[in-house]
Amino acid sequence: MLRETLAQLEHTVKELADIDMALDEASIVAVTDQGGTITFVNDKFCEISQYDKDELLGQNHRIINSGYHSKSFFREMWRTIAQGKVWRGEIRNRTKYGAYYWVDTTIVPCLTDEGKPYKYVSLRIDISKRKEIEGTLDTLIATLPDLVIFKDGQGNWLSANQVALALIGIGEEAYRGRTSQELAEFSCSAREWMASLSRLEEEAWQTSATLEREFEVSTVEREPRVFSFKCVPVFHDQGDRSGMILLGQDVTEQRRTEAFLRRADQITAAGQLASGVAHEVRNPLSALKWSVLMLQEKYEREALFPMMLAEIDRIDHTVEQLLTLSRDKVSVFSQVNVDEVLRGLVPILRAQAEEQGVSLRLTMASDLPPVWGDGNQIKQVLVNLMKNAIEAIAESGQVEVSLSLSEDGRLVIKIEDNGVGMPREVAARAGEPFFTTKPGGTGLGLMMCHQIVREHGGSLNILSREGRGTTISVLLPVSQPSA
Ligand code: ADP
Ligand code: MG
Questions:
Q1: Which ligand lies nearest to the CA atom of residue 446 in the structure?
Q2: Partners of 249 in the β-ladder
Q3: Pocket-testing residue among 436, 442, 444, 466, ligand 1, by greatest number of atoms within 8 A of Cβ
Q4: How many whole angstroms separate alpha carbon 161 and alpha carbon 172?
Q5: Residue 84 to residues 31, 74, 79, 112, 224: CA-CA distances in angstroms?
Q6: Where does 169-253 show beta strands of DSSP type E?
Q7: Strand residues in 45-196 grouped as ranges (E)
């Protein structure tokens, strides 16, 4: 009986020794007392921390602390193990010479009969390589100009990059483990597009396919952007949902350029048409006007004549604008001081504006360089844009015109009104030849502005919000002509 027990004990001891050796081989082992003083380390511990055994024994475990983790991180760890529970986590430590290494750490408390820990055994595995790869991947995703979101199979957010977080307007800490619905609650502006995105995701799950769709994303501070989203559903081998990858690319500029090119085609076509029509209309029109003037003299009391003359003038005005489109007008380029042009224009337009209850303000930076262009054409652009701004104000409001220099050295003319703004359908078409929403409009003004600005090597951007107003920026290069 005794012999049997002894044999069994011997066997158990040997088995324990085997396990011990295996552990010693496989992992980085340290033992501390309940105060954190190191009482044992194995060779692997010395190897990775680059300390000698006698440099470690008797020291506090803090000796390898890298300062990376927060105080609360370690407080939480101590709380767990002091309660006699096993703690597991990933820790960054520091070697004797200041290099860092990452270890997957399990700390097992050894308990007295009363259940109080009297020492702690920590088993660690070197995960520095994995951390390095993860770090590179994180940096890559974080710095990507595209939106990236990873979700689990239940729709909880696992990870998202800066672009994604900034769009919703939430911080690093707030999003993990939450669903899109929960996150949409944080941000009014994101609610609509996040709902569209959720629908697309659901479709991707249903069809088990990568789906791509474009929609408008409203943002907190900036104008709405157009994003092209891609949903990639990932399934486990067994076929259940593993996770979802969401990618989003801002295609606003791309779409804008495409629209601009389409418009440019239309403008060219309209320009060719215009010169033909304008010449045909001009002569009969002046004959007509002359005749009406004659008749008016003869039948003085006929009230219809002023109306007829006004209408003829309107047609004449349209024809005039059409002619500016056609190529037979030669541009005369020279140094143009846009501030002087504006100083001449604003008082005239201000008088008109004030009659309609609109105040017109002008602010200009000092020492602005001249641009190389056709003064008359630039004047036309300014008049058209300011008139549009004034006309956009229904009752009272204000138009602000400002002149400044952009960071990249271009002249910025900004015309801002707090008028009706453009609904989406109008914004999409404004600048098309003959597109107008005004009873007496020609629908040629914006198109002409686009054309002139383009010929000056500049750009014209429209930012409009329905019901709030419109800001139009014209950027013109100030580059000098080569001598
Ligand atoms: P028109 O002024 O003769 O209508 P434009 O080409 O100048 O022609 O403008 C086209 C259309 O664009 C306008 O009818 C209007 O609907 C819209 N629009 C232009 N500027 C503004 C503005 N500042 N605010 C609101 N809508 C504008
Ligand atoms: Mg106009």
A1: 1
A2: 228
A3: 436
A4: 9
A5: 15, 15, 9, 10, 54
A6: 211-217, 225-235, 241-250
A7: 87-94, 100-111, 117-126, 147-152, 157-160
List, in order of start, the domains of the chain with CATH numbers.
Answer: 2-125 (3.30.450.20), 144-250 (3.30.450.20), 252-328 (1.10.287.130), 332-483 (3.30.565.10)
Of 475, 462, 461, 340, give the one whose Cα is nearest residue 409: 475
pLDDT band at 365 (very low <50, low <70, confident <90, very high): very high
| Gap from CA of 431 to ligand 2 centroid (Å) | 9
What are the distances in angstroms from CA 69 to CA 49, 141, 254? Answer: 18, 23, 43
Instruction: Answer whether 267 contacts ligand 1 (Cβ < 6 A).
Output: no
Q: With bands split at pLDDT 50, 70 and 90, how would you rate the model's confidence at 281?
A: confident
Which DSSP helix (H) or strand (E) runs through 413?
strand 410-417
Tokens of 33: 């007392």
pTM of the model: 0.48
Pocket test for ligand 1, best of 321, 386, 388, 418 (most atoms within 8 A of CB): 388
pLDDT tens, residue by residue, 200-245:
999 999 999 999 999 999 876 777 889 999 999 999 988 899 999 9
Q: CB under 8 Å to 184, separation ≥6 — which residues?
A: 168, 190, 191, 194, 195
Cβ–ligand 1 distance for 437 under 6 Å, the answer: yes
Strands (DSSP E) contained in 282-396 are 334-336, 358-364, 371-373
Range from 70-74, 234-238, 262-266, 419-423 that averages highest in pLDDT: 419-423
